[in-house]
Design brief:
The complex is a heterodimer of chains A (about 110) and B (about 110). By secondary structure, chain A is mainly beta. In chain A, about 0% of the residues lie in helices and about 50% in strands. Classes of the chains: A mainly beta (about 110), B mainly beta (about 110).
Chain lengths: ~110, ~110
């Protein structure tokens, strides 16, 4: 059982480049989300989805797009990378309702130069 | 806007000591308060959680104390071990608000021999 799988583990981009961070889960979880982790800032919610075809913005959505075409996958797109987007990105999934625990992937460390 | 404030930022204790991590929240509508544990290079994982209808919850060596009137909650680790060295995040959420969590800024704990 792989859980939540994030790829790539590391990525270096130049300002203005675009890329997609991949997230896949094999637990049939309806809820998926993206967080970024920065020193002294904790984990901040970027976007989330309660099911295929449904997405919504979190606390810090600017500069990021998401889509949810299947239950398993929830990619995060950076259309034009900026140095402020240098961070560690975590994807998390859970069952919906009942305050089900979030299951996190192991993260993607992104550096934008 | 920091809705969940966490302190201290870092903490060093001796093996067998009792580290205490404190969190305070602002939104009185929050009704779910989990703690997540993160080891280097890994994603956070749920450690223990509490709801505001109880003042204390214990799971093994980990205890959450909750003070609803003060809007504060804390994590105590009894008989701490070097294997407890990790970053700890408190969080707050709403039942019925999906699984969106607002996280604190994290506490880096080191347990020395």
């Amino acid at each position: 059982n792989a859980g939540v799988t994030q790829t790539p583990k590391f990525q270096v981009l130049k300002t203005g480049q675009s890329m997609t961070l991949q997230c896949a889960q094999d637990m049939n979880h309806e809820y998926m989300s993206w967080y970024r982790q920065d020193p002294g800032m904790g984990l901040r919610l970027i976007h989330y989805s309660v099911g295929a075809g449904i997405t919504d913005q979190g606390e810090v959505p600017n500069g990021y797009n998401v889509s949810r075409s299947t239950t398993e996958d929830f990619p995060l797109r950076l259309l034009s990378a900026a140095p402020s987007q240098t961070s560690v990105y975590f994807c998390a999934s859970s069952r919906t309702g009942g305050n089900s625990p979030l299951h996190f992937g192991n993260g993607t460390r992104l550096t934008v130069t | 806007q920091q809705q969940v404030k966490q302190s201290p930022q870092s903490l060093i204790v001796q093996k067998g000591g009792i580290p205490i991590i404190n969190c305070a929240y602002e939104n009185t509508a929050f009704d779910y308060f989990p703690w997540y544990q993160q080891f280097p290079g890994k994603g956070p994982a749920l450690l223990i959680a509490i709801r505001p209808d109880v003042s204390e919850k214990k799971e093994g060596r980990f205890t959450i104390s909750f003070n609803k009137s003060a809007k504060q909650f804390s994590l105590h680790i009894m008989d701490s071990q070097p294997g407890d060295s990790a970053t700890y995040f408190c969080a707050a959420g709403l039942t019925g608000g999906g699984n969106k969590l607002t996280f604190g800024t994290g506490t880096q704990l080191k347990v020395e021999l």
